[in-house]
Amino acid sequence: MTDAPVPSTPVLGIDIGGSGIKGAPVDLQIGELAGKRLRIETPKKSTPENVAKVVRQIVEHFGETIGTDSPIGITIPAVVTHGKTRSAANIDKSWIDCEAEKVFEAELGRDIVLVNDADAAGVAEVHYGAAKDHPGLVVLTTLGTGIGTAILNRGILIPNSELGHLEIDGHDAESRAASSVKDKEGLSYSEWAKRLQRYYEVLEALLWPDLIVIGGGVSKDSDKFLDKLKLKTPVVPAKLLNTAGIVGAAWLAVDRRVHPDPFLS
Ligand code: BGC
User: Fold this and answer.
1) Can you state the angle between helices 48-61 and 100-108, rounded to 10 degrees?
2) From residue 59, how far is each of 67, 77, 92 by CA, in Å?
3) Is residue 98 part of a domain?
4) How far apart are the CA of 64 and the centre of ligand 1, in A?
5) Which of 87, 140, 141, 175 to mutate to test the pocket of ligand 1 (most atoms within 8 A of CB)?
6) Which atom in ligand 1 lies closest to the alpha carbon of residue 116?
7) Please, what's the b/e burial string for 181-192 (b: 16 or more CB within 10 A of its CB; e: otherwise)?
8) Domain range spanning residue 178?
9) Ligand 1: nearest atom to the Cα of 119
10) Atom of ligand 1 nearest to the CA of 216
11) Mean pLDDT, to the nearest integer, of 100-112?
12) pLDDT tens per residue across span 46-104
């Protein structure tokens, strides 16, 4: 397992989604929010500059709780390598190849760490939730607007897996099996579970994980579909539900101080 960073003052985590931007201070000793979450609508034109302005409102709101020196963790539904966003699934295309950490740091005047949303959720579940202290290979999937994935082996994150975009039976997997598709096509849980079954079968045949964690908003209804999945791998619902991204982002922000990114100067 990695050394969990455990500062005693709360660290701000912010979760940028297609419809809302949510932030809260996190108590990393226990992996729980240390204050009420603030949610602000994602700007219609969700460019890095417009989103950074909303993030600033959230940072200012929690200014007193988080102090001036602690880093801030921010999630985004995109691939992020060394501070740069490389893709843009449900956000403005101007995020592609944007030096996004720099955009945030210029707006906020403080250290920020930008991470993929599913990676943040995976980290939170492994440190505080459904896969706490798991000694093996864990795959977390978030089922929402798209499908996000996080791979963690013995607590170490292998970042930016994009296995929601596996091509399965000629389709981008998330376009068939995301929970937004269930809603859009009006599928029953049984109908949707058949698509999930196909998705997870492929996932387990490629990765052979020891545990699959199902996250995303729909994981709170896991009793309606989990028992319909027949897989070799144990499957459990996520525990942190809608706080996972915020908690994981805060954790990763502190982790960056302990383990700096060697590709960033
Ligand atoms: C994106 C991922 C993201 C996931 C969940 C996918 O469409 O490509 O980067 O983690 O959606 O938001």
Assistant:
1) 40
2) 10, 20, 22
3) yes
4) 32
5) 87
6) 10
7) bbeeeebeeeeb
8) 130-238
9) 10
10) 5
11) 96
12) 999 999 999 999 999 999 999 888 999 999 999 999 999 999 987 899 999 999 999 99
Query: Residue 151 forms beta bridges with which residues?
Result: 139, 158
What pLDDT does 37 receive? 97
Residue 200 and residue 113 in one domain? no
Q: How many structural domains compose the chain?
A: 2
214-242 in b/e form (b: 16+ CB < 10 A) is: bbbebbeebeebbeebeeebebbbbbbeb
222 Cα distance to chain centroid: 18
Gap between the Cα atoms of 222 and 216, Å rounded:
10
Tell me the whole-structure pTM to 2 decimals. Answer: 0.97
